[in-house]
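Obj: model holo form, ligand = coenzyme A.
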Amino acid sequence: MSTTGSTIVDRGLEGVIVGSTDLSNVEGQIGRLTYRGYSIDDLAQNACFEEVCHLFLYGRLPTKSELQQLQTELATHRMLPEPLVMAMERVPATAWPMDVVRTVASGLALFSPVNPTGTHVSDEHTAIELIAKMTTIVAAFDRIRRGLEPIEPRHDLSHARNFLYMRTGEEPSDSEAEALDTYLVLLADHSFNASTFSARVTASTKADMYAAVTAALATLAGEAHGGAPSAVMKMILEVGQPKRSETYVREILARGARIMGMGHREYKVRDPRAKHLEKMAKQLGETSNSRWYKIARALEDASQKVLQEQKPGRKIFANVEFYTAPTLAALGIPDDEFTCMFACGRIAGWTAHILEQLADNRLIRPQATYTGPEVHPFVPVELRTNGQQGKRD
Ligand code: COA
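Output (holo structure tokens):
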């Protein structure tokens, strides 16, 4: 918070309540996250991603037949319109995956019937379509940029299993499919985080769900939000071996940089999702590259030691992104696609928030304190000199 003249300005809206939601509750002081009242701990261990989608979109966990119905609808929507696949084939292989995902997701609107106001129907079925297709976009571009043909989605596989199948053409092991499913559950929603807020702002203008999801994707990309896990992986690779962790952390802080995957605007304790991701990273590491998990673990310990020493009282702990990096890397996902994977989980929350916003909408339009020049006369172009523009004579 800062003060401009006599006005108090909340830069970053920290602690400011701008709306209400039934979808998820972040209790940052005690490190608890719940989705519609269910603890993330219970959901991560017992529910699949599709059950969580139902919980968000229809207000309660599904019965067995409702779950089957939702899984069938998701499977029906997995295929992408052919022109969008062709467009991805024309994109340079060096394109940043998140730019491709944002652009292609936006392009889905072009294949949806448009109403006279230039918008598209935005309901639970639109949400299911977007949830289904997000993973197909990510898997298709992953193959295209490796010079491979995209693999058509299968109807008989779960959401997580089908995604891993579309990347390689082989069915993943149960432990891989379960790990990805748990990851998607953990990432599915987080109250009014920046990308969700962005989606709600866009929806509040009565733009449609495709537009609001595109805004959310754009907002997710930054390293203060969903862009962090790629940077965590970079750190892990640079550290190279656990015993170098402390020196590495000291070097980062000495040059005034931040330790990626550490710190959170809401959590003042360790992020409650971190323990589940750590467990998965460890388990997956036993069958693939355990070095990454071991380095991550050593980095977390070193970060805690050095941060407590250099920034006492700041409460900077591992956030969701920290163990996302070794988890996704162990699943064979390249680090520049980590933010895309975040989007594959968060799309469940984004779409539910958009529906919640539309159900009781009010245009979100805050104010700003003006700090520019006072009102002054306009100077015609031929009379302007350097240094005079925008200033009083
Ligand atoms: N490494 C080192 N110091 C950190 C830090 C980190 N990861 N995160 C916060 N800090 C320090 C800041 O340097 C600042 O210290 P100072 O008071 O000495 O200047 C203090 O903690 C408060 O930082 P601030 O930026 O005001 O906190 P915030 O609530 O805005 O930050 C994040 C939240 C997530 C943006 C921040 O923790 C961060 O940049 N983390 C790294 C990126 C990341 O993991 N992003 C994913 C978030 S889920």
